[in-house]
Amino acid sequence: MSRIAFVLTTCHEFEGVKVLSSVLKQHGHQTDAFITSEERDYYQAIADFRPDVVAIYATTGQHEWPYPYIRRWKQLNPKLKVVMGGPHPSHDLEPLEHVDVIDATIKGEAEYAMLELVEAWAKGESIELIPNVAYRGPGGVPVQNPIRPVIQDLDTLPFPDVDIFYKYPFLRSKRVLQVHASRGCQNSCTYCSVGTMKKDWVSGKKGEKFNRTKSVDYLCDEINDVLARYPGFRMINFGDAALNMYSGWLQEFAEKWPVRVGLPFACNININYLDEDDIIALKRAGCVSVQFGLESGSEDVRLKIYKKGYTDDVVFGIPPLLRKHKLTFRTNNIMGSPAETLDDMFETVRVNKKIQPNGCTVLIYRSFRSTVLGKEDFELGRLDEGKDIGPSIQHDSNMIREDVREVVNLQKLFNVAVYVPFGMPLVRALIRLPRNRVFEVTQLSFLWYQHAVVSGYGMLDDFLLGLKNLRNIFQPTRRKPAGRSLAARMETGVETTV
Ligand code: B12
Ligand code: SF4
Known about the structure:
The protein has 498 residues and is α/β, with parallel strands linked by helices. The protein contains 20 helices and 15 strands. Helix 10 (247-260) links the parallel strand 11 (235-238) and strand 12. The longest helix is centred in the last third of the chain and has 18 residues, at 437-454. The two termini are 37 Å apart. Mean pLDDT is 91; it is low at 479-498.
């Protein structure tokens, strides 16, 4: 039996970590998750758990924060092993260069790779033949093993282990339960890592599917199992890229969910695969609010550069149907990509004004090497790699462009431009001012209102979550380990942002 500590800096219940934990527990191992904002003394909490393995979930930009802690835990226990998984090491083996910190990384879906790795370490066996694992080979050069097929039938997995997160009073007493019904996505947007995942995270075995759903029955059983132990949740938020991955699934869900679970929910939708019948099904199932990525007001940018697949017909056609069936909706929008001028970004404001969403989430474009567009940015030198913009896609831009201040200011004031009378000319003038806290607070206030009220996550819950995760938005990536001050414990995060 091994003891595995998952270390996390965002106050959020991560689906991937929940499933990894349940598979490890199913095989007799002991696991726990540790979130920085929820521990009084982060170093000591994990030292007291006495892990054999520390496991890091990492997106790009959020991967180095635990290194200083790990160096201390390794001093305490020189046999401690450390593995990193998630999107970042799945695309980049750079973490293995940190010889004193990382012992192995895992590419792609990690359930069984992690199990085999932990067991090989416990027995002192070689890890060099474990599919998905990467390690330091001869001369310290990273070696990435080929990967196994992704798990085709999600129902074969044990229910996600919520207990490692709901040991924290804040997470278990929230109004909203975070759930996933699927893996994958119908789109392959060029600014997102999912396109690469589709090619890279699958083994290539004939017939292997990347887009998968849990069966409706499994999903209902899973939620009822959680609610039996944690009955306080009043609403569900589906974190899936889109809940309408398969139309037939949605229709069955609309039949069974209200009877078997009956909680209202919010979710993301893919408007390309959504018709009025699906909207009726969502409504019948208990959906109260949906969110979709508009990303750009320009159809050309959306179709030709972002490869989002949403034509203007769809963008203007779906919102009236959502309104007709009394579903509130929010849009996601990107500011500052190399594909857009400031005028194009104001076109995004205009389209939002026309389709009248109940809220606009506005994120700043960020280049990831694991995306088509990001790769191009790095190759063409479009970004200032030396500029530390922190881990978030909410705060700042490191793109090299003369109007970067205006872009970042527009992201902060976007909702003013959309919702305030005469907001557009006002914001056009304001974005020329130096960046300032008032703009930041304006943006966070809109976001808070839209999450808490429009999507129904609850005023207090969302405010506290924002505070806990504030630091991840506003602080640089290269930072010292968190201390005991309140500010230092307000760790990174993003639920506030997405
Ligand atoms: C839901 C979601 C969120 C949710 C929940 C986060 C989460 N990961 O659960 C929230 C809203 C909090 C969020 C936040 C952010 N997200 Co997000 N998110 C997603 C989304 C849509 C689904 C992730 C998911 O849950 N999938 C289902 C589970 C089962 O899969 P999984 O998480 O990948 O887990 C598997 C493997 O990754 C691996 N694994 C996972 N954890 C671990 C841990 C260890 C130790 C190991 C070994 C393996 C491992 O095994 C798991 C099971 O097979 C993906 C896009 C996508 N479709 O994948 C983007 C995505 C992961 N997010 C992304 C980004 C950029 C962010 C933010 C930085 C955005 C921001 N606003 O600043 C933050 C970062 C938060 C953080 N601390 O890491 C990027 C990451 C890109 C990159 N190259 O790093 C993605 C890929 C989308 C994109 N733009 O390309 N996100
Ligand atoms: S729809 Fe969302 S999750 Fe899917 S590829 Fe596009 S940005 Fe990524």
